[in-house]
Design a protein that fits this description.
The chain is α/β, with parallel strands linked by helices. The protein has a single domain, classed as TIM Barrel (Alpha-Beta Barrel), CATH 3.20.20. The protein has 11 helices and 8 strands. Helix 6 links the parallel strand 4 and strand 5. The chain binds 3-methyl-2-oxobutanoic acid and sodium ion. This is 3-methyl-2-oxobutanoate hydroxymethyltransferase.
């Protein structure tokens, strides 16, 4: 199968074809999502919350995210794989941003990187794309700045609309090949999507984006408890896994697992090809 490229994702926009993106942080989900037709996979810094158990995305490091990204790339044949640049690995300027992006390209062999921010990181996006590395932008609610934004809030309402439009244009002009819009009103998304030549990828941004992205543990129901309004659960993996684990425990405790078919016999096997 042929690897999906940025040009394919952009051609889809021109043809009016939508595409789906999911996060992935390991080889099994990566292979399953790739086979299911997920066009792009994001090794998000949301691995901080969803794999490593941190309370936000801020603590995760480049060294923690690179091995996860490598496992996703290695397990896919078609999907375009993007890794997030973690908080603190690109804010200092274009030199730091390019150095981090190059590490992801060389050590994880991802196909592009994503970073958060609009006008304020345009120089970083420019430097990375000039080096031949595809960049996905990310504006609206940007989790790495949750403390500055005052928590998980919709962005781009009212007079903030001008700011988000300026951010979208800055990201596109700096050379990004696609742009994530997170927690942006549907009407604002619609204008950005029609004004930009690059695909928009929505999460909590309504139906008018060119593509959609969700965190896989949210979409497949592995995460329980509070879920943001923009999540739809396509399965209940928490229930499936919880019940299977409880059945295993019960069978071990009852002595019904392992059974005979799971047990090796003491007979010496005949070497292959030799008539017994
Ligand atoms: O890290 C992540 O999962 C993301 C998506 C939610 C866009 O950045
Ligand atoms: Na992220």
């Amino acid at each position: 199968p042929k690897r999906i490229r940025t040009l394919d994702l952009q051609a889809a926009k021109r043809r009016g074809e939508r595409w789906a993106m999911l996060t992935s942080y390991d080889q099994y989900t990566a292979a399953l999502f790739d086979a299911a037709g997920v066009k792009a996979l994001l090794v998000g810094d949301s691995a901080a919350n969803n794999v490593l158990g941190y309370e936000s995305t801020l603590p995760i490091t480049v060294d923690e995210l690179i091995p996860l990204a490598r496992s996703v790339v290695g397990a896919t044949q078609r999907a375009f794989v993007v890794a997030d640049l973690p908080f603190g690995s690109y804010e200092e300027g274009p030199t730091q941003a390019l150095r981090t992006a190059v590490r992801f390209m060389k050590e994880a062999r991802v196909h592009g990187v994503k970073l958060e921010g609009g006008v304020r990181v345009a120089d970083q996006i420019h430097a990375i794309t000039q080096a031949g590395i595809p960049v996905m932008g990310h504006i609206g609610f940007t989790p790495q700045s949750e403390h500055a934004l005052g928590g998980y809030k919709v962005q781009g309402r009212g007079s903030d609309r001008d700011k988000i439009m300026a951010d979208a244009k800055a990201v596109a002009e700096a050379g990004a090949f696609a742009l994530v819009l997170e927690m942006v009103p549907g009407a604002v998304t619609k204008v950005i999507t029609s004004e930009l030549h690059i695909p928009t990828v929505g999460i909590g941004a309504g139906p008018d984006c060119d593509a959609q992205v969700l965190v896989w543990q949210d979409a497949l129901g592995l995460r329980t408890g509070y879920l943001p309004r923009f999540v739809k659960q396509y399965a209940n993996l928490a229930e499936v896994i919880g019940e299977a684990a409880a059945t295993y425990v019960a069978e071990v405790e009852a002595g019904t697992f392992p059974a005979e078919q799971h047990t090796f016999s003491a007979e010496v096997p005949h070497p292959p090809g030799q008539v017994p």
